[in-house]
Amino acid sequence: MNDQRTIVKCSVSNCNYWGEQNVCKADQILIEIDKHASAKYSEEFGHEHFAEHKDYAENSSATCCLTFKPKSS
């Protein structure tokens, strides 16, 4: 099994998963269509829901990252 991960860059510097050189440090990332962005997913429910849920994005601006968690101050 290949454990090589894709490097994900992000510009949201106040996220808990923000790393050096804008690299996301999250173990998993949940991305959703913007029209579903207001859904209140807990991490467990979000993962279960996302496994069966499929949607279509016309372009990248129609998507959002639901993994975001603000840095604790």
Give a verbal description of the structure.
By secondary structure, the chain is mostly loops. The protein has a domain at 28-65. It is built from 1 helix and 2 strands; from the N terminus they run E-H-E. It has one helix at 43-52, and strands at 31-33, 63-65. It has a two-stranded antiparallel sheet. The protein is globular. It starts with 30 loop residues before the first strand and ends in an 8-residue tail after the last strand. 3% of the residues are buried. The mean pLDDT is 77.
Strand order of the largest sheet: 1-2
Mean pLDDT: 77
Outline the low-pLDDT stretches. none
- Strand residues, percent: 5-15%
Which structural class best describes the helix and strand composition? little secondary structure
C-alpha-based Rg, rounded: 13 Å
The residue fraction in helices comes out at: 10-25%
Can you count the helices? Answer: 1
Count of distinct strands:
2
Query: What overall form do the CA principal axes indicate?
Result: globular
Question: From N to C, what is the helix and strand string?
Answer: EHE
Termini Cα gap: 38 Å
- What kind of sheet is the major sheet? 2 strands, antiparallel
List the helices and strands and how they pair.
Layout: E1 31-33, H1 43-52, E2 63-65
Antiparallel strand pairs: 1-2
